Amino acid sequence: MALLDQIRSIFDGDPGVRKVADDPVLSAELLMLFRMILADGSVSESEMVVFRRICKEAFGIPESSIDSVIEYLNDYGYETNGSQAIALFRDLDVERRKLLARHMADIAKADARLAESEVKLLRRTLDLLDISPVDLVKPES
Fold first, then answer.
1. For residues 108 and 135, what is the distance between their CA atoms, to the nearest angstrom?
2. Is residue 78 part of a domain?
């Protein structure tokens, strides 16, 4: 079965990349998460572990696809700036917007230190999403 999946992947492309490419909101969220990873000027292993966990658990992206998804975001993400990505979330329900904010906060906290640039990015995102910082510490409903 794995061989058939590999052959299908050659002809159809990576399933995780297809999932991201076919969903503009998911693409925007992953780009925002990646921007949070880069906000402090370095990519830590702990931030990447959290990013991979979010991809797998929250979005159902197979572990085997995550490197290809990152490559896709690097190749095509330059076409979308942070404001454009956030604009896709404004019309979504508040719980979905809170989820983005929580994921960004999880990545910011992953390396056990909050850089000022990470705090600024998170604060600006919360403002644009009309989310209170209190919502990040409340348990998910």
1. 16
2. yes
